[in-house]
Hints:
Layout: E1 20-25, E2 30-35, E3 40-45, H1 51-56, E4 70-72, E5 79-81, H2 89-93, E6 99-102, E7 108-113, E8 117-120, H3 123-133, H4 141-153, E9 158-161
Antiparallel strand pairs: 1-2, 2-3, 4-5, 6-7, 6-9, 7-8
The structure holds iron/sulfur cluster (2 copies).
Amino acid sequence: MATFECDHCGKCCRSFGAFIKIERKISDRDFYCRYGITNELFPVHVSPEYADVFSSSLPADAIPDACPFLRNDREGKGYACTCYPTRPSQCRDFRCYHMIIRTAGGEICGKVKGRADLKTSDDNLAKLWKEEVEPIPREDPAAWMRAVIPLLAAHGYHAEPVE
Ligand code: SF4
Ligand code: SF4
């Protein structure tokens, strides 16, 4: 099992505003929010290091569907969750990919998202995926994983599920 690592691209948070709503403001940095899918109410505390950026700017790039706690990071290169230590369990549990694929040398060359959506810049892997992996039935995720891992290994790739 590989460990999931979030690279803070902010893609998921840019659409989470549809689910995370501020219900009550307690102070400039303390809120009660509701998660729309489960109706769960949870407290959120804006981290001290983001107090200024949180109060002085709109959700990242003023994206209409962004989570209300997402802001552009200080370097302007990516995004920052301004309440990371108190983010809701849905954010803690979210995994945007469920498998990583490495070359024989150990370099990460692919990530699998959704049901079986491969993101890679390795042309050989992309071709192999299209010709041999895509036809494998996906109804049973565990059976799919058991079929795909040895298939990729036979071509020199090491695939690992992500926990
Ligand atoms: S969970 Fe995935 S999509 Fe969301 S910020 Fe992290 S890397 Fe990006
Ligand atoms: S609470 Fe943080 S991690 Fe969760 S969607 Fe909002 S910005 Fe992203």
